[in-house]
Write a structure and sequence with these properties.
The protein is an alpha/beta fold and 293 residues long. It is built from 9 helices and 12 strands. Strand 10 and strand 11 form a beta hairpin.
């Protein structure tokens, strides 16, 4: 009798892991879009480029983003049965309750901590495999889970939009920024190119260059150049002093981003002692973090 009960338990646990959704192939680039203010950068970039497919090959949404932006994959890591469902039932007008109106019908895979019956699109997150890939059990937000999964499956470029965690003039920050910035460093060390939304506080991307590079009194500019090294062309950042005539011209004392036509951003940044800067015509272009520095 006890043996039969153990077999039944194993079958039930196994059934939770099954899914009818087909795992898509590994994309070259992804945009991870979360619910922070800089998700507006993703929208404006997509509009400026005519389609979100020129921002990234796939769009990965975090939680309620999937109900607003067309996504290819979703990451909803909170336990659906024990965390999200009670919250939705207790507060019918909340964001979580709204998620349940479309989550079952989402066409792509929804990665989550535990798969439950009634959802054909849920995929159990491969926690052990991902932790071994990043070599550290440090995943404290849904954004971190999505980012680490991108590293795990071999994505070559990751864009981060709405992944802000902290905001100007707020004393309380959301948990998770340090973890995501750790993953940015890890990804860069493995040759993965990173894009951070220009209005995001992640990596202080929303700050003028003088606030991100400490200690310099004289103005300077940073621009990206292509150089040949060992028979290969690599991308490098060059730091150059700014001549006085350029400093006096308010148009040159600015942050300048150039749209390369494929959603990637070339860097040319001017900085002055007072940190003043002016955005380009497409204000919401994103900062590209080079992995060849």
């Amino acid at each position: 009798m006890q043996t039969k009960q153990r077999k039944t338990t194993r079958r039930k646990a196994s059934s939770k892991r099954t899914t009818r959704i087909k795992q898509p192939p590994v994309p070259k680039s992804v945009a991870i879009v979360a619910m922070g203010a800089s998700c507006a950068n993703f929208v404006s970039n997509s509009v400026a480029l005519g389609t979100s497919r020129r921002v990234a090959d796939e769009i990965w949404g975090i939680n309620s983003v999937g109900g607003t932006i067309k996504c290819d994959r979703m990451f909803v890591m909170d336990d659906l049965e024990h965390i999200l469902k009670p919250l939705a039932d207790a507060t019918p007008g909340c964001m979580t309750a709204g998620m349940f109106t479309w989550l079952k019908d989402f066409a792509g895979p929804v990665y989550t901590s535990t798969v439950y019956p009634g959802f054909d699109n849920l995929v159990e997150y491969p926690l052990e495999d991902v932790i071994n890939t990043i070599c550290l059990p440090y995943l404290n937000s849904s954004v971190a889970y999505a980012f680490a999964y991108a590293i795990h499956i071999g994505v070559k470029q990751v864009g981060l939009y709405g992944c802000d965690f902290s905001y100007p003039d707020r004393h309380i920050a959301e948990r998770g920024r340090a973890c995501v910035e750790f993953l940015i460093g890890l990804a860069g060390s493995r040759g993965i190119s990173i894009i951070v939304a220009s209005e995001s506080t992640l990596l202080d991307a929303n700050e003028p260059i003088t606030s991100r590079v400490y200690g310099y009194h004289e103005p300077f500019e940073i621009e990206r150049v292509e150089e040949e090294a060992d028979g290969e062309m690599i991308s490098r950042l060059k730091v150059k002093p700014v001549v006085k005539d350029e400093v006096n011209d308010i148009r040159s004392v600015s942050q300048r981003t150039s749209n390369n036509g494929d959603g990637r951003v070339g860097d040319s940044v001017h900085a002055s002692r007072d940190g003043s800067h002016r955005s380009s015509d497409i204000r919401d272009e994103s900062r590209r973090v080079s992995n060849h520095c």
